[in-house]
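Notebook, p. 212. Picked up where the previous page left off. The plan for this session was modest: take the two constructs that came back from the sequencing core last week, fold each one, and keep the raw output in the notebook itself so nobody has to go hunting through shared drives later. Recording the first one now, exactly as returned: residue sequence, then the structure token string.
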Amino acid sequence: MGFRLTAPPLEGSLVRLEPLEARHAADLAVAAEADRSTFGYTWVPRADEVPAYIATQRERAGEGTVAPYAQISRATGHAVGCTSFCTPRAWRSPRRLDAVEVGWTWLGRSAQGTGINTEAKLLLFRQAFEGWGVGRVDLMTDARNTRSRAAMERVGARPEGVLRGWGVSRVAGEEGRLRDTAVHAVLAADWTEVRETLEKILSERTTLAPPRRS
């Protein structure tokens, strides 16, 4: 049997990544409806689709092909989005993971621009490179999604080009159409520099953040 993905809890100062479960549904339904104009080219379930979305991701988790997480804001204690490890590849040995993708990522409007995405990527990359010893982590998005592509580059993923007709469009009105997919990646050789950059960004955010009111 090949390598099976797992979703160990990952803890940061801004976000806690918990294995996705049915108990996260109520919070995620709220986050998914807050301001859907911010999702653009990213597919996000509607509030009434969240339970089925969670059930599907948990089914995939049982097969070992996806390791889905709820993103929990440490400031509020509420689930504010999702992310996942997916597309595991074990090329050299069925028991050793060589590469993995971070995908199925979205955040509700209130969590965007708060540093949660940056810290979540740091936690996920650390698990992939230091926990599993992968050589490569992929991040992919619709080639038209300039906002997502810029965010990928901010967290250290290097652009590698566009795969034409690679994947299905998630844009409303484009059901059934294929999309061009932009590919970004972080390699094991990049990890030390990427980790230090992300830690510096998060440290500066903490230093510059105004004190919380009690």
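Okay, moving on. Second construct, recorded in the same format:
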Amino acid sequence: MTKSILLIGCKGQVGTQLQKTFEPCSNLTAVARPIVELAQPETLRDLIRENQPSIIINAAAYTAVDKAESEPELANTINAVAPEVLAQEAERLRACLIHISTDYVFDGKTNNPYQENHPTNPLSVYGKTKLAGEEAIRSNCSNHFILRTAWVYGTGGKSNFVKTMLRLGSQKPELKVVADQIGSPTWSKDIAQIIAALVTKTPQETGTYHYTNSGVASWYDFAIAIFEEAKHLGFPLQIERVIPITTSEYPTPATRPSYSVLNCAKISTIIESHPPHWRQSLREMLQEFQVNQ
């Protein structure tokens, strides 16, 4: 029997890619605001009961990391309460819930890639609310995949680091970029393909998984790579110099983990493939972005 899929948050970075990935599936229902409003979680019950999906994919979240510090209740409603409702409804239907989480559940105070069972210690409201969402799902839904990822960018959605660098790089000859935060830039298209692979897995394989592109970089390294690849492709850039700075030189309302590399060995085992390197995926994303502009 063909599985029916309900995709929530189809207009975001990962959601737009998921919609493209599942386009051949005639049993896909993709929704976003204003049809679904995670700030009013109880409305999700009617949506799910109307559609009766066998798989629910939650690609929606409150992701304004700094703004969350001044909007903790709203961030908690969207990132914790809404996933709890989704989990309760998935359990009632005996459906599978696939939920996207974040590296921000960790504090970054280690030098080794985080495994799924490493103790969590979020430093920000965003990280705390995302962790609360994870815990609500584990408590309420037996058949779930929680996919932690990091440093997400893509052609879809409103904004991300790559789009910001391209915009600023086309306007300014010089930029300052933080060089002491380390992670793994991850293309939303790769995340979508992994979620499509998870859809085929059995309930015995459910649980929490880490997935990012392979390799590590600082935001400074990432910016340099963006400009190198973009110049090679002929993007109109004025940028001549990128200056590395420390986190303390660029203060933000939310504290970010200084090291957020995730160990992806567990998911590589069940999908029988390794994540592509972040530089390779960046190159492919920029090619797609250039064609679609």
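Notes on construct two before I forget. The radius of gyration is 19 Å.
Flagging for discussion at group meeting.
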